Amino acid sequence: MSIKKLKKRERAVSPLIATVLMIGIVVMAMSIILVWSKKFIGEQIEKYGSRIDVVCERLDYKAELYNTEPGVYAVVINNRGNDNIHQVNLKVIKGGNSAVKAFTPKDGKIAKKETGNVTFSISSFPEKFSGGFDKVEVTPVLLGTGAKTNKPKLSVCKDKAMVLKLGNA
């Protein structure tokens, strides 16, 4: 058999089938990208029918840091707002190092117009903080509801973070 006869016998995929295949590949690729990207887009959290960030803006509190005993500290929080604080994120800072941990107030939450506290031991943070810290950043966390799932979700009010210093820390 000669080369000319082989080339004449070869048949290509019809343009219609090629177009259908390309459209199918594009649709599959878009589906994969959509499913993958949903991991990066968080669900909107609401409270009282408003977005949680609007509720965070209204949050009003005052915090003070006390050394209760060697290596043990208390953050006393006076919640002057109309929303319960369900958790407090504490960011311990020493030089250029920092570490964040979430703490639940003693009574489970700091109710609106109430005062509560969070006690922590410096040993609950990494070893590099064993000698103490320079300052602590307090960030309140509110409990809202997922707009789609209607399940309870915590939301950190980053714009309401407050930096506290302790003279003997």
Please give a structural write-up:
It is a single chain. With 169 residues, the chain is α+β, with helices and mostly antiparallel strands. The protein has two domains: 10-37; 45-165, Immunoglobulin-like (Sandwich), CATH 2.60.40. Helix content is 22%, strand content 38%. It contains three helices and ten strands. It has helices at residues 3-9, 15-37, 52-58; strands spanning 45-47, 50-51, 61-69, 72-79, 87-94, 97-103, 115-121, 135-146, 152-156, 162-165. Strands 1, 2, 5, 6, 8, 9 and 10 form a seven-stranded antiparallel β-sheet that branches. It has a three-stranded antiparallel β-sheet with strand order 3-4-7, with no helix packed on it. The radius of gyration is 28 Å and the shape is elongated.
